[in-house]
Description:
The protein is 78% helix and 2% strand. With 208 residues, the chain is mostly helical.
Amino acid sequence: MSKNQKHKVEMGIPAHIMEAIAVSPVEYLRRWWEANSTEEERTAADERDATIEGAYAFIEDFSRRAKHDGQGACLPDQVAYDLCGVFMRVCRDGDVYATAEEIAKEEAEAKRREESEAKRKAEAQKRLEAAEKKEAERIAAMTDEEREAYIREMAERKAKEEADKAKAKAEAKAKEAVEAAKRAKREEIARKKALAEEMEARQLSFNF
């Protein structure tokens, strides 16, 4: 016990209170989770990349966003423990609580982007098909000499296409990254939905 702690005990603060103060909030959450979770739940949390540190960050964010007369909320211990349990069973580090309205808005925006992308691809395909049809008609109307020149041109174009394969491969890789980001976003929204449902079931909101 430090000199300062001894002084406080002498001032009337019991030793067990001082010991409790010395434990960090993260450690309290860790002890609660270990005592109130199953081995399967802890394994699932590890596999989902959910940590107690992430749960604490989640609780802090929740507290900052919960408003009471314009002030940040001071959460009761049990609410903090409940939030920790919800996070460890549903979320992964970095997730934040979103209301049903926020999730709906996010989903609507994602749907708008997907529809816009689908429309762009459909229009591009339509232009490609029209160009291919026009090219086929042009080839059919060629003379023998024109057709021979066309064949030479196609051979040169094929050689160029071979040289462009590296570029196409890079573009495909970039597209895969975009699709992976979209999948991650869909998974994030799914977790947010599960989180919102769990919070509602436990009657945990910004209005506790």
